[in-house]
Amino acid sequence: MRVIRITGNPVQSDARSGVPPLRLPVPRVTALALAVSATVLACGCGGARPFMRTAPPATLIDPTRVERWEEYARPDLLNMIAIWVATIEAEPGTCPRIERSGTKLEAFGDCVADDGQLWTGHASLHTRNGVVRARFEEFGDSDVAVTGRIEVDGGSRPRYAIDARFDMSRNDQRPAGQPSWLAIDARGHVADDGTWQGEGELGAQGLGRVRVRGRAIALDDEVCSHEPLAGTLELRADGHEVVIRYDGASDCDQPGTALWWLDGAPQGELTGINGGLACSVGSGGRGLGPLALSLLLLLARRRSRTIA
């Protein structure tokens, strides 16, 4: 039997590698094969860039579009995606086929799993000095395939770097309006003060592309579980700049809200802001944005299947 699942928080240590457990304010991702820690390096394979070039600049003057970008451009969410994608497990001889050699794990598709899922492509993961470096070549199942590179560190100061595209066109049951692909070229880390910092560019079919920067984003569910305590998220596209400012430490609303500015002019409140992922994923509330939630659920479902 092969079991791939996600539970509470955090990524557990792999006894074979001796990597310490990952401590994050997010749901636990049970890494049966790999855990993530230590230092991340920026990656530059260009997995996202070819698709990014095909997307026009995003529209930022519409608050509903701004809310949608906010929901999946924050560094804490991108870190969660990096962790989930860089965690692979299967029993030897099953599909996808797994080969291990020292610190290297390879996964091979072009096979049909017992549940009827067609797996394609190839993935290679290296763990060295606690760093997980993963490379994907159209690797995935009937839900989503990944191409590009991801490096991730889950130590005391988590870091991630993503340069990858996610092809969801193969999923003929994806929600209406969900883009057929998502491209991420971004990196981020937790600073000495415990806040999230991050920057990069995101693109999606039908939605365009946007440059993002997160500054000093503080999350603490014990203080406010509905929105970040402080920090800003900046979005830039088509000559416009949006600044979203979080204020959960002084004004913790339910559902979460944040103030935003367009080209320096105040625009009022954005609604539906989420707190840390621990209360967003599977909380039963408004949840994450359509694209982010769909992608996360696709990845989570891939890891939650139990194949007899």
Task: Note the total helix count.
Answer: 5
Shape: globular
Helical amount: 10-25%
Q: Give the class from helix and strand content and strand pairing.
A: mainly beta
Element string (H = helix, E = strand): EHHHEEEEEEEEEEEEEEHHE
Average pLDDT value?
Answer: 75
Strand proportion, as a percent range, falls in 35-45%
**What is the β-strand count?**
16
Through-space gap between termini: 5 Å
Radius of gyration computed on alpha carbons: 19 Å
Low-confidence stretches: 1-45, 278-289, 303-308
Tell me about the largest β-sheet.
Answer: 14 strands, antiparallel
Summarize the structure.
The chain is mainly beta and 308 residues long.
Structure characterization notes:
The strands form 2 sheets. Strands 2, 3, 4, 5, 6, 7, 8, 9, 10, 11, 12, 13, 14 and 15 form a 14-stranded antiparallel sheet that branches. Strands 1-16 form a two-stranded antiparallel sheet. α3 packs parallel to α5 (290-304). The N and C termini lie close together (5 Å). The chain is built from 5 helices and 16 strands. With 308 residues, the chain is mainly beta.
Question: What labels describe this entry?
Answer:
globular, 16 strands, two-stranded antiparallel sheet, mainly beta, 14-stranded antiparallel β-sheet, single chain, 15% helix, 308 residues
Which helices and strands occur, and which strands form pairs?
Blueprint: E1 2-3, H1 49-52, H2 63-73, H3 75-85, E2 97-101, E3 104-108, E4 111-112, E5 118-128, E6 131-140, E7 145-153, E8 159-167, E9 181-190, E10 196-204, E11 208-218, E12 230-237, E13 240-245, E14 256-262, E15 265-273, H4 277-280, H5 290-304, E16 306-307
Antiparallel strand pairs: 1-16, 2-3, 3-5, 4-5, 5-6, 6-7, 7-8, 8-9, 9-10, 10-11, 11-12, 12-13, 13-14, 14-15
Helix pairs in contact: 3-5
